[in-house]
Design goal:
By secondary structure, the protein is α+β, with helices and mostly antiparallel strands. The strands form nine sheets. The chain has a five-stranded mixed β-sheet with strand order 9-17-16-19-14, with no helix packed on it. Strands 1-2-4-3 form a four-stranded mixed β-sheet. Strands 13-20-15-18 form a four-stranded antiparallel β-sheet. A hairpin with a 4-residue loop joins strand 3 and strand 4. It is elongated and about 150 Å long.
Length: about 1450
Amino acid sequence: QVNFGPSFQAAERSTLESLCLTQLLNRASVERLTSIVVRIAPSPPLEAQFAQVCPSGSPNLLQEPAAGVWNQRIPWMWDSGPFSFLRESRKADGGTGQVTKNNAPHEDPEEHIFDETWEEMFSPHPLEENIGTKLRQRAKVRQQGHIPTEDAEEANKGHGHGHGHGEKQATWATALASGIINYLLMFGLCCAYGMIMFNEDNAEHRALGVKMNLCTAMLFGLILAAFSSIKVAIGGPDLNPVVFLAGFIEKISESIAEQLELEGLDTSHRRLGGGSSSSSATFCVGYHLAEHPAECQQYHEELRATTIFAVAVSTAILGCLFFVAGRMKWTRYASYVPICVMEAFMACVGYKVFKYALYFCNYEPEQFLPAAFVGVPLYFIKAYHIGNPAIVIPAFLIIPLAIFYIVVYGSGNDLDSAEEWMFPEMHNIAFYKIWTDSLGKIGKINLKAWSKTAADLAIMIIVCFLDCLLKMMGTEGKLPVKVPKNDEMILDGLGNIATTLCGSSVGYMQLKFNVINYGIVGSMDRRGGFIYAVLCGATFFSTIEHFNFLPRFFLGSLLFFAGSGFVAENLWGSRHFLSTIEWCQVLIILAVFILAGDLLYAVVVGGLLTCIDFIVTCASVPCVVAPRKVNKRIQAEISSVRRNIVSQSSLEHMFRSAVRVVKLKGQVFFASVQKVISELQDTIIHEESLPAYQRLQCLIFDCEMVDGIDASTGKLLRKLASDCEKHNIALVFTGPTRETRHRLMQQGLLVQGQVMYEQLDEALHFMEDRILATRAKQQELWLSLDHNLKLHRETHIKQYNLDPFREVFLEESSRRGCPWKYCSALRAVASKTILWKPGQTNVGLFLVHSGSIALFKHMPDIHGSTENWPAPAAIYRIGWFMNRKCLTHLPTTHYAVVIEDGDVLYWSQDQWQQLERDCPRMAGSISHHIMKQQALDIERADPGLQKLDKFMPEEVALRFRRIKAVQALEALGLYEQPAQGEPTILPKLPTTLMEDLAFVFQLFSKPCAPNVKKQGIEDPNGAMKGSDLDAALMCVGILAIEKVDPERTLDYQEFLTLAREAGQWRLSRKQQKLLEDLFDEYDTDKSAFIDLIELAGVLPKAFKYDMPREEVESLYDEWREKTHDGLNKETFVAFSARLLRLYHQDYLLYKGLSSLVGSDALGFANQTTKLTALDLAKRSNRTSKEAEPEHGLVTEFEHLLWSSDWRHQLGHSIEVRDIISSLLLPPLSSGSLLPAQVYMPLSSETSLALADPIGATYEKLPDVEVAVIKDSEADCHMLRYSSGLLQLRLQVNSWLEDPTSGGVAKIIWTIMTVLIISSVFVMILEPFVYEHEHESGWETLGDVLQVAEVFFTIVFTLDYLGRLLTASASGRMSTIEWMLRPWSLLDLAAILPMYVDLIFKDLDIGVATVMLRALRLVRLTRVARIAKMASTFPLFGPVAMITLVAWFIYLKHVM
């Protein structure tokens, strides 16, 4: 089913044509295709375009509410044709294992109505026919709920595939009729084969050739009739081996004549286009015989003996090959030969058969035209199963003979007077001459002459073996039988061994005769084959002199009958399933054969074309997986480990330069990998001018999808490895199979003991750790610039290790409440703990605090070695939430397995709901962070998404706003340290924070406290250890500032004192007075309380902090007095002290950055302030104030700037916000410092929950219609004008290119069809007229033909120009592309000869004369124009090709 939505307003014609039923069926390759559905959303342009390319008679689109539907039901594919081998998968009949046609599961009788069309479509050599029309007509009847009567009758008969010859009772009368008809055909062909084998110079041996072929017909007729599983099988000689045998005899005769020094042997007539039409021979006759009597006698004796020997040897070789192939079941390897080469060889045979047909007719049109008018229609009648073959075939054979004899004797003449219409008399020879002239004269066998046939013998073996298989496949497609190919091959082998003993030619099953036999007999009956064999045997043992009563055109008609199949099916029919390039290969091979006159050269060219095509195809098939690109820039290939956005962005920036991953796939062929390796080598050379830290450091070749590596690729890789070693680049191979690893070691790319990564992810993970370690060392350079930066980094790392929510609760208001009241912690053990399995619905939310958790598509063996684990889909580390789907109540996916020991926080569904009720802002912050991580995951999964390279992370932007605030706070003097001995105050903490501290103290004061009250704790009992102080305070968001002896025991009051000291800023009296003055200033209503509106004015004006409104409201709710709506003076001072403590870490960052950019607040407020490496080196503590920094130190800072500038990726300078981003990089690892009291009571080797999976249903979103808005009336006018012109061009193009586009198109195409046929008829008449142009009465006719030629050329020129000017209207192709199409080139070639003829008309130049002759031959392309009518008249295609080939042979001969 193919769906087109409204967004598809147009599509390429080739795309739509491939959706049409006829085209789609011809490309089907599945066992059963039940329906083809094309759904088109309401879109008139697309519907009209689709209707143009649908076959003629397609049904109207069924308009449904949402879409139009074009639907066809398809029958069983295996009932006939090349897909019939699929029947082997059906159930065996009765357990015997025998597969028969009757076993097909035709439970639906409607399927039978498609059998006729299906067989025609999938026959081995399908003729062009409007199959789509037939299917639609039958489908329309089926949709009405009944089956046509005639189809129902056929369905009940035998195979019912529509040929009109279903199973019926066989009789002796039908068997006799079949045997006689097949004998008459075979006798005529055997006579033709004998004449093909021996030319005019060796005409006295033609009877021997006829007898040899009759012997083959007799033996194979008897063997197949008696033993073949195909009861109607008829065997005998075939045209393919006979053509090769003719070549053998030609070379043998030439060699013998040369050895005997006999001159005058003429074989030029066998060279295509050479020789004369005269039938007279001068070799070894007359004066020549009188001069060389002994040599001529020896020549003929050696020729007969060597010919019989050569035929017997070729038959023996093929017989053994058939037998061995059947026994070894080699028939399945026949498909390895390129189909285009096979089709070309068959086309060459067809061409040669046509040439023999014209040669037998002396190239005289009055003889070969009647032969063609008899033989070609007979072929199409047989191919289309028209009429009863028992009547039609004898009629086509006897009626022309009867007419000939009536004309001859009716005109008062006899056969002697009609000598030019008859062959030279052929005298019968005794059948035993086959043995007496070979075995009886074994010394006459000329082995030297026979050795000349070795090259042709090899080609003959291949062609005949494949032809035998094609005959079997064709029988399987044409008849209701399953052909056991291997068994039939064995039988053919034994049969050819028998014919070898008789010195006869190669034989095997004959498709045409099988179909005729079955069509006449009407059932699977052996009697017709036996009668045929007996008649052939009677002729073999008696006489063949009745051949002398057959005129030349009769054998010519039989050859046209035999050759039409090759031309129509292999030359023309192959274009249906071959690509344009492949079909051009067929034409090239045929052209070489025509020019060279020898099949050996055609085979060589075919082999070269196959090799070139293979190399080009392999080179065009990429051997690497295309790297991800965004904005035309290759994205870094990174591991499955998830990190925060700052760390990940910085890593990708460095990874993109340091590591290159090349994912190899398939068979790595030197032609396909050459470009990749060249690009890598160019990259290595180009990077020599870059600093060392920007160069490639590691080149990874992923071999997981590699099937094989050839030796040439190994050589290229060795050269690349050498270049990598020179430039200090590590070359790593990952994921090779055992065979690939052995191949790499064989090529010297791997050595024993070298590190090998089984998975690409492992290598990427290793390189990422190295880069992050380098990045961590670079942090020391930042810290060396100022002591405050070092203090900031220490507090940052401490908070990162202690607080799992550090990146979640960026604002203090988000942490209102203690998150630990609503979650639990889990000690995760590597390779033991499984968090969830796929399909569970009652699993909660996880947050990784330390360690690593991996998601696997398949459950790894946790009890086995981790080396055998599959590659994870993702690895999550500190700060990442997992099972985010639980918030939307979706089931889990993947297996979540802990791969590194650590701590995991967990919210059950009940805990999460409690959190949402009690602390909605906290739950909202967690959800917000989950959405950000989900977006990062989606970005990794879809490389096509646009990445925001200049996007500043939220945490960095927040830090920058806070730095502005601490600037203002410092300016107010609030961060001044009190003088020694100066009295200070420590304001109180808010009530909610005190409650959380009480909860945390009780949680840490006991080993386990599962029933701790969540609120209302005033003075809990117990004590806690000093070692737990940092973790306990961080649970409520307070970073401890005093170090306490780990062994010290703290009671509740001591704990509160330390918490208050760490949570509030100690103020001097002066600072307290300043804050009280600010309170009075902003208490505008003098109510002694600051309400929400007044507080919102204090923060941006006094503290320069643009805090969001919701943040202000949250802080206000936390600090306001319970009995009053506002903050009193004391609470405001405490509130300010809390902000000072919270922003102290930002104050350290501000002080450190101020030392770098200067203390100018305005300058620092500009976030685009930039620093260079030289500026930083001067401020380093490793450089004295007076001296210039060392070059090495400047280089280190350049490396630092380049690593830190991940947004711009330049490294020349760095902005302040990028420095902040670099300083906020997380540490390499975090310790598991969570208290033991918060862990869940779970066993280590368990999963958290198991439940049945649930399904989810998704609905398709409705399509959105996009409106197009015109800018102005002038634009609308131009649009209407251009649209109208385009519509006109489209309409004209459809009229000229598609005869089904309307009534006008049908009229134009009908006229053009008549004109094309007329022009071809005129072209055929020209040779007759010009031959008699000097006779009276013929000159006028010649002038008429010239005028007609000019008229036709003008009309065809106008047609060509019309299609040329409108070719680009549809947008499917440009004008140049249209001109380069094969059909367009043929049309151009058809009209050029007249114009060129006019130019060179008066020139008497030899070269010009030759060119004019060639151009007149080019006019034959006009015949090919008939094939363009094939879409309307299916027979036009093959008929045009047959006409083109036959007339080309004739014109080539007469010119």
